[in-house]
Amino acid sequence: MGRGGFFGRYLRVDLGQKRAEHVPLDEATLRAVVGGVGLGALLLGRETPPGFDPLGPEAALVLAFGPLVGTPLTTSAKLAFVAKSPLTGRISDGLSSSAFAIAGKRAGVDAIVLVGAAEEPSIVLVDEAGATLVPCPELWGRDFAISEASERLGQAYPDHRFAVIGVAGERLVRYAGIANDGRHAGRGGLGAVLGAKRVKAIGVRGIRPVPLADAEATLRIAKDLARRSLGPATEKYRSLGTVANLSTFNRLAALPTRNFQASTFEDARRIEGEALHETRERGRGSCKSCTIGCEHFFEVRPGQRPVKMEYENLFALGPLCGIGDPEVVLRASSACDELGIDTISAGGTIAFAMECAEKGLFPAGPLAEEARDLVFGAGERLLSMLEDIARRRTPLGDLLAEGSRRAAEIVGGEAPSFAPHVKGLEIPGYEPRALQTMALGFAVGTRGADHNRSGAYEADFSGKVNRFEPDAAEAAEHAVAAEDRAAVMDSLILCKFLRRAMDDFYGESAEMLRAVTGLPFEAKDLVEAAGRITLVRRLFNEREGWTPAEDTLPARFFEEKLPGGAAKGAGIDRARFARSIDAYHARRGLDERGFVPAEVAREMMAWMGGKYR
Amino acid sequence: MVTIELYGVARLRAGREVIELDARSLGEALLGLGATCPVLEPSIVAGGRLAPGWLVALNGAQITADPETPLGDGDVVVLVSADAGG
Lengths: 613, 86
Description:
- Chain A: InterPro entries: Ald_Fedxn_OxRdtase_dom2, Ald_Fedxn_OxRdtase_dom3, Ald_Fedxn_OxRdtase_N, Ald_Fedxn_OxRdtase_N_sf, OxRdtase_Ald_Fedxn_C, Tungsten_al_ferr_oxy-like_C, W-dependent_AOR.
- The complex is a heterodimer of chains A (613) and B (86).
- Chain A is α+β, with helices and mostly antiparallel strands and 613 residues long.
- In chain A, 42% of the residues lie in helices and 13% in strands.
- In chain A, the strands form 5 sheets. In chain A, strands 2-1-6-3-4-5 form a 6-stranded mixed beta sheet, with helices on both faces. A 4-stranded mixed beta sheet of chain A has the order 8-7-12-9, with helices on both faces.
- The mean pLDDT of chain A is 96.
- Chain B has 86 residues and is α+β, with helices and mostly antiparallel strands.
- Chain B is 21% helix and 31% strand.
- Chain B contains 2 helices and 7 strands.
- In chain B, the strands form 2 sheets. Chain B has a 5-stranded mixed beta sheet with strand order 2-1-7-5-6. In chain B, strands 3-4 form a two-stranded antiparallel ribbon.
- The model of chain B has no long low-confidence stretch (mean pLDDT 94).
- Chain A binds chain B through residues 232-237, 239-242, 244-245, 247-249, 251-253, 273-274, 277, 294, 310-312, 451, 455, 457-458, 460-463, 467-468, 496-497, 500, 565-567, and chain B through 5, 7-9, 11-12, 43, 51-53, 55, 57, 59-65, 78, 80-86.
């Protein structure tokens, strides 16, 4: 083991047996997958049997830290929650930034793995000695907002930092998230995984410093990176935040609107980032240990607590649902955060239901009756729907708590053709027909439609490809490169907003790892790790039933052209898209159907452990 | 006459959304933009070129940073940050 960064062990907590043990991790394994999502994927495969129920006791929830957590490097206070998604049935890894990540790492572990299920609603308290299960009847089933539950936990255990689920996680909403310090590991329903284990919160207390192999070099790199993090490459995030995307995307006709029926929104001016900044901005914030400070808080009503808003929340709860009232969108975003549900999946699933309602697709009876006023633009109805979903308190709320794919299968008819998901994960705020390299990134993503594990939109926005009709090989090249870089950033773990502040991503990342860990990381090691991490995820998905048919998009994107704006008439050609998928598989080193070749799988499994095939 | 539309940080800094000027190429348009809005120099436009991290979408569609791109009467230059994601 090196001299810093890693502790060389993880804490395995068996909730059913009320037992915790430290399990060693060898240096070769840690070097191979780095940490974060890479380590999380590896441990998830090791700790679970093939075909397990993501909401069953045999499921594992992994909290994986990276080697840089707890160091002076900017944006490094991050961890990955990794599990099999109850929404997709495939791997899901949600990242979150907070003091929780630092405290967890400083408990002297590289990861925490929860297996089994508690007999009664409980919290898990972790420290260097191990873990304790504490019943929490006072918190479970009480309908507390996440902020209130967090506050109560903080008062009861002031030495611990907490990751908490909301009412949606308790009710097993398939896109419930996990919150810590106001940040959310939102995607894929990992909050439901925790809820199924009857765990309301995980508290961590860590006081052991993360060792640095070369403290002087680490500090020098940290200072330089912090300086660059304040340069022009991040000005957008500092000045306006990600909400700045909305007006640009609208102008480029890449803004998903009314459940992807259009890509421009007539009310975009009311909710665009520039307008919010001018009229409602009330402050900025940042994640723990971050110098960028991309969080922007906006006023809902005078006297009320301002709400943090990101582009994905804004698009999903605004244009995607046909809503252009900034107050409604801010309230909806806040409601998702307090109920503990993913904003993208919530907005996507409700937008899907709005289209079903407008087309009269709900079967006659309670569903159709409840959906009668669920029309695009109905802001107050959106707000009440979020509450119904999080509590599963009405027939329609219960249906939509299952996500758009399952809901569409139940509604039937033409509904599955426009349910806005890939592999069950609702599509983020990038219109695939207007950004067709990103469309490929969505289709092949191991987590489903995913803007965080594939940044292929950068190619579309770069002018290097024709965003309406990219060459198949070029699109595949860009999709692999974007996915690889994300795999490494999410394993280190560092914030992706640093990407343009780094001139030589793989070289600089290796330099950081050498300084922190003392291990001989080189750029080529990280290039190899990037591909390996993606293959580990794909092997897990293959084990859990992935088929090549899942690497696609909903029929709408092939069959309907965009109706207006700068992308008017754009559609995705099925044959060309199929060639792009084939090119991706070839570039990724997969076989012609997209499976990990048998000899590669055998070689990887030899060191991964666990049964992947 | 060419129209330049500003979005995001560029709009915030310039305090304007739209600028109209005569230009026969993107380079000429960017020179004119820099002269009209000096606050955009040099981090967004620099001497008739786009600074790193900035692009234009010609008429909202074709994305380019090439200053030789010809412009005609009525063209719209949409100035956008290349950091489109998040």
